[in-house]
Amino acid sequence: MIKTVSQTPGCKGCPMRELIPDNTFVSRKRPSPIHDLNRLVIAEAPGEKEFEKGKPLVGPAGEVFDELLRKADIPRDGLTIINCINCQPPKNVFPTDSKAKYISKEKAQIAVEHCIKHHVDPVIRQRDWARVDLLGVKSVRVVAKIKNGRMSDLRGHRVEIQRTGRRPVTGVPIYHPSYLKQWGQSKKPVTVDDLKSTLGQLPRFGN
CATH number of the domain that 85 lies in? Predict the structure, then answer.
């Protein structure tokens, strides 16, 4: 059943809910118990198809992601998938992006932090994930708290994701499928390699 953000208790107090109360709440995609890889994927924000279906990564970017998974021989139904923010931002512009004119910088920061605290962090703390794939630089910024470095510098490395009261889990920055679709076709092979990589193969970012 698709819910709106106004029907989702965890969205109460979020500036995005105040802005668009009938926006769809895009909940996480849970893995099949049979194929569960204990692997978490965190994308950036829902788009139009995600808004319509209430599921993450099912639009054009999701199609690219599915292509990458097939090439990496990773079953999608083994993954847990969630977004940094769980409702579609106006014109698909992330709230904290400099192009976001629909919300003040202060409220944008509050909105992102609210969604991370109430919807994303509980999932990250839920398990000792084998790995967490961070799709796109915004996911790296808001989840791993790494403020420097371009995606071209971050990919191919490991980053640490801190968890209150629990040991950190390891994240792997991955080019976002929407970037690959629009501008980064040539980077698909390295993205497949990054998805296939074992954590021991990857150097820690900043070392």
Answer: 3.40.470.10
